[in-house]
Each structure stands twice: as C-alpha cells, then as structure tokens.
Amino acid sequence: MKSLPYFSRGEVIRGFGRGSKELGIPTANFSDAVVDTLPGDIGTGIYYGWACVGNGEVYKMVMSIGWNPYYKNTKKSMETHVIHTFKEDFYGEILSCVMVGYIRPERSYSSLEALIEAINNDIEEAKMKLELPEHLKLRDDNFFTSAPSPPLDLPPTSASTSQTIMNGH
Predict the structure, then answer these.
(1) Which residues, other chains included, contact 100 with Cβ-Cβ below 8 Å and sequence gap of 6+?
(2) CA distances from residue 145 to 12, 14, 97, 117 in whole angstroms, order as listed
(3) pTM of the model
(4) Vertex 87, ends 33 and 19: CA angle to 5°?
(5) Which of 3, 122, 150, 156 is least crowded, fewest Cβ atoms below 10 Å from its Cβ?
(6) Which pLDDT band, with edges at 50, 70 and 90, does 150 fall under?
C-alpha cells in the first residue's frame, strides 16, 4: 500500500445508523465522493490512524473501508471510529483523517458479539501501533491545522461544504 499514509477530508454524513445503536461503537461516515476517490491500492479492510473533527483535537482512530460483510452492504463505505468520547453527534462537521497503517481484511462474523469483539481488538491494536514514533509524528501534521470549517452563512450539507480528498498536502 504505497498510498499510505493517506490523507482524506470530508463532511460527516449519516450512515447506516448501526455504529452507536447496535455496536456501541459510534462511527463517522464519509460521503460517496470521498469513498469513490480512494486509490486502487487501498483495498477494503480495517485501517488505523489519526482523525480530527473540525478544528478540534487530533485523536487516534480506526477505519473500516468496504462493504461490511456481516451486514451484507451493497454500498462501499468509509466508517471512522474516533477513539474519543464526544458529547454529541457531529453530522455536518468536517472530518480530517490520515490512515497510517493496515490492521486486517474485512470479514464476516457468526454473531454480532463476535463482530464487536473484533472491532474492540482492532481499537486496542490501533492504540498500540499509533504510539510508534513514525506514527506519532503524523498526529502533529500540518494537515490537521489546515482543516477548513463549514461556511458560517450556510447550513452544512454536501452542497454547501466542499469535499476535499487528498493524498499529501
């Protein structure tokens, strides 16, 4: 995966509504415009890296890219779990992410409990790997300090908020 680290930015949209409700693991979803521009060498699977909502702090994250086989999705998605407890949802905010590494391929599970256990294992692995010096330095990358805010005069929608997809900055 020569495209890693991969930098992406876009508006947080409503996803399938399963992250918080069914899994207890909230996710922030990117629009199709962001998903459709992923480089070919970034395949489906679970990734780890750094994420920032708006101009806030940078936190560790895990991201699922793909069709979520357990749910048999027909639409490819990028679902980011920011490893932080937020007080409220942030739909319409700009999410900036840098994927720095790959954990595993996506796979189906025999039960919801097995899926939740796998996600929690992914989170623990991401926390550990992101402590490596080569990954820690990306937390302070200027990509996060250049994160745009939504326009003040317009409500955040995909029409009023630019979708920026980038590899590099």
Answers:
(1) 4, 5, 47, 48, 49, 50, 130, 135, 138
(2) 18, 25, 12, 34
(3) 0.85
(4) 50
(5) 3
(6) low
* Angle at the Cα of 150 from the Cα atoms of 146 and 152, rounded to 5 degrees: 120
**Helix H or strand E encompassing 97:** strand 94-104
Q: Find out whether 12 and 144 touch, Cβ atoms under 8 Å.
A: no
- Of residues 161, 162, 98, the one with CA closest to residue 134: 98
- State whether residue 137 is helix, strand or coil: helix
Q: What is the pLDDT of residue 62?
A: 98
Q: Locate tokens 């994420």: which residue?
A: 51
Closest CA to 7 of 131, 135, 137, 96: 96
Catalytic residue among 11, 22, 57, 79: 79
